[in-house]
Write a structure and sequence with these properties.
heterodimer; A: mainly alpha; 8 helices; about 0% strand; B: 6-stranded mixed sheet; 4-stranded antiparallel sheet
C-alpha cells in the first residue's frame, strides 16, 4: 500500500506543476541556474568517466577479438561507437548523474522543507512544485542530452587512444570502423534514453526531497533513496527502451 | 479581520484541534498562547492555509478560504506575510535578495523601485547595512528582522508570526516584539502571533487566546490575564514561574 501511495503522490506532484507561472522571467532564471548547476557541475566527472569507459570497451573487446582472430580489427570502431551510443554513454552517465545530481536535488529540497523555506514560498503564493521542481526537470532535459553526447565523443576518443597505445589497431583502422555502417536510428534511441533518464533522475529526486519530514537524518535518508530509486528505475527503463525500440 | 469558526483538525487518530472559534481584529496584535502540544502551530497553519481543516471555516474579511479557487487563494496569499520560527530565509540568497524575492515574483516594479522598497523595509526594521550579507553571516536577531522585512515588503494586510522570540535573548526579543507592534499599528495589519513567551503577552498582547489540548480555553486582554484565577490551566500556564507569581501578588497588593 505504501508503494502505491508513493506512486500516486509522485504523479500528483508532477501534475501539480502544470499551472501558469507567477512570473515567467523568474522561472526562466531558475531554469538557467539549474542548467548551469547540473551541466557545468557534471562536465568534469562525465568527461573522465566516459573517456575511460570508451578506453576499457576498446581494450576488452580488442583482447577478445584478437583471441578469436576471425573479425578484422577495424570493426573495433563500429563496436566502440555503437556500444557507447546505445548503452554505455546514456546508461553509465545517467547512473553517475543519479548519484551526483539526484542526491544534490534531494538534499537541497529536503533542507528547504525542514527549514520551512518551502512553506515560506507557499505563503507568498508561489506554486512550490512548479517553481522548485519544474525548472530542475526542464534544466535537466536541456543539459543532460548534451552531457551524454559529449560522453559519446570522449568515449570514442578514449577508445582511439587506448587501442592505438595498446597496439590493437591503427588510428586509420579505428576511423574506418567509425565511418562504416552508421545507423542514425541508434542516435534517436540514445536521445530517447537521455530524455527519459533525465526525467527519472530529477522527478524521483525531487519527490524524495520535497516530501521530507523530520530533520537532518531524514534529509540524508531521502538523498540515499533518491539515488537508489533513480538508479533502479533507470536500469528498468533502459531495458524497456531497448526491448521496445531495438 | 480574520474569523475562525469551529476549526477541527486531526492527524490519523489524534484530534489536534477540537473546534476552535475566534476572531482576530485589525491593527491589533492577537496572541495565541498555550503549552507545547496545545495545537498552536497547527491552528496557525490552518489559518494561513498550509493545512486544510477537516471542519470549520476561516474568513479573511468575509472571504472564506475553504471555498476559494487557486487564483483567489494566490491573491489572498499576496496579502499575507509570515515570520517563521526558524526564519525560513533562503540560504543561497543575500539579505537584499531575500527581501526582494516577493517583489521579483509578484510585482511589475522596476529594479530601482524594488531596491528602494527593499531598502525602505530594511531600514524600517533597523537593518540598513546588511543588504549583501547572507543569512549565515548575520545574528539570530538580525535574521528575525530580515524575516519581518520580507513579510512586510508586499504591504500585507495580515501578518503571522510563529514564535518570533524563540532563540533570542530577552532584550532582542523585546525589540522584535516592539517592532511587530509598531508595524501592526502603523499599517493597520491584522497580526496573529504564536508564542509562549509571557513577556510578549504582557508587552504587546492586545488580544490573548489560550489554547489547551486543542480547545480554546480562554480569551481576553493582557490586563485580564493577570486577574484570571478561575481558569486553572491558564493560571498554571501564565504563572508557571515563581517570579511571575510574586509579581502578580505584588501587583494585586498595590491596588
Amino acid at each position: 500500500m505504501g508503494f502505491l501511495h508513493d506512486i500516486g503522490k509522485y504523479f500528483l506532484m508532477i501534475a501539480s506543476m502544470f499551472t501558469r507561472p507567477e512570473k515567467l522571467s523568474m522561472y526562466a532564471k531558475e531554469t538557467m541556474r539549474q542548467v548551469y548547476q547540473i551541466g557545468i557541475g557534471s562536465v568534469l566527472i562525465i568527461a573522465i568517466v566516459s573517456t575511460f569507459v570508451g578506453a576499457v570497451t576498446a581494450v576488452q573487446f580488442s583482447y577478445q577479438l584478437e583471441e578469436i582472430g576471425l573479425i578484422p580489427m577495424w570493426w573495433m570502431g563500429i563496436i566502440v561507437r555503437d556500444s557507447l551510443i546505445l548503452e554505455m554513454a546514456p546508461t553509465i552517465c545517467a547512473l553517475l548523474l543519479a548519484g551526483k545530481v539526484g542526491s544534490n536535488i534531494a538534499s537541497e529540497l529536503g533542507s528547504m522543507r525542514v527549514t520551512d523555506q518551502i512553506d515560506a514560498l507557499e505563503i507568498m503564493g508561489v506554486n512550490t512544485t512548479a517553481y522548485l521542481i519544474g525548472p530542475k526537470i526542464i534544466g535537466a532535459l536541456i543539459i543532460i542530452p548534451f552531457l551524454i553526447i559529449m560522453a559519446v565523443f570522449l568515449g570514442i576518443i578514449g577508445g582511439l587512444i587506448a587501442g592505438t597505445m595498446g597496439g590493437f589497431y591503427s588510428g586509420a583502422e579505428y576511423v574506418r570502423g567509425l565511418q562504416d555502417g552508421h545507423e542514425t536510428y541508434y542516435v534517436v534511441v540514445m536521445l530517447i534514453k537521455c530524455y527519459v533518464f533525465a526525467f527519472i533522475i530529477t522527478t524521483i529526486s525531487c519527490y524524495q526531497g520535497f516530501y521530507v519530514k523530520g530533520g537532518a537524518l531524514e534529509i540524508g535518508n531521502a538523498s540515499t533513496r533518491a539515488v537508489v530509486n533513480s538508479s533502479i528505475v533507470i536500469i528498468v527503463a533502459n531495458f524497456l527502451i531497448a526491448f521496445l525500440l531495438l | 479581520m480574520i474569523e475562525a469558526h469551529n476549526i477541527r483538525k486531526r492527524f490519523g487518530d489524534q484530534e489536534i484541534l477540537k473546534g476552535i472559534s475566534t476572531e482576530f481584529e485589525n491593527g491589533k496584535c492577537n496572541l495565541i498562547i498555550g503549552s507545547s502540544g496545545a495545537g498552536k502551530t497547527v491552528f496557525l497553519k490552518c489559518l494561513v492555509g498550509l493545512f486544510d481543516p477537516e471542519e470549520g471555516d476561516i474568513l479573511y474579511d468575509n472571504r472564506a478560504i475553504g471555498s476559494m479557487g487557486v487564483k483567489e487563494k494566490k491573491e489572498l496569499r499576496n496579502e499575507m506575510g509570515m515570520l517563521f520560527q526558524g526564519n525560513a530565509l533562503f540560504d543561497s540568497m543575500t539579505v537584499e535578495q531575500n527581501v526582494r524575492f516577493p517583489l521579483d515574483m509578484f510585482s511589475d516594479m522596476t529594479m530601482e523601485e524594488k531596491t528602494a522598497r527593499v531598502n525602505f523595509c530594511l531600514s524600517r526594521v533597523n537593518l540598513p547595512n546588511a543588504n549583501n550579507k547572507y543569512p549565515g553571516e548575520i545574528s539570530g536577531g538580525m535574521m528575525k528582522r530580515v524575516g519581518i522585512a520580507r513579510a512586510i515588503v508586499m504591504n500585507p494586510k495580515y501578518l503571522f508570526c510563529d514564535e518570533p522570540n524563540s532563540g533570542l535573548d530577552p532584550k532582542t526579543a523585546m525589540v522584535i516584539d516592539d517592532l511587530i507592534k509598531e508595524i501592526t499599528v502603523e499599517y493597520n495589519i491584522t497580526t496573529v502571533i504564536n508564542t509562549h513567551d509571557m513577556n510578549s503577552v504582557m508587552g504587546i498582547g492586545d488580544k490573548v487566546i489560550f489554547l489547551h489540548q486543542g480547545l480554546k480555553h480562554w480569551e481576553g486582554t493582557k490586563e485580564e490575564v493577570l486577574e484570571e484565577t478561575e481558569n486553572k490551566e491558564l493560571y498554571e500556564f501564565i504563572f508557571a514561574s515563581d517570579f511571575l507569581k510574586k509579581l502578580r501578588e505584588a501587583a494585586l497588593q498595590n491596588r
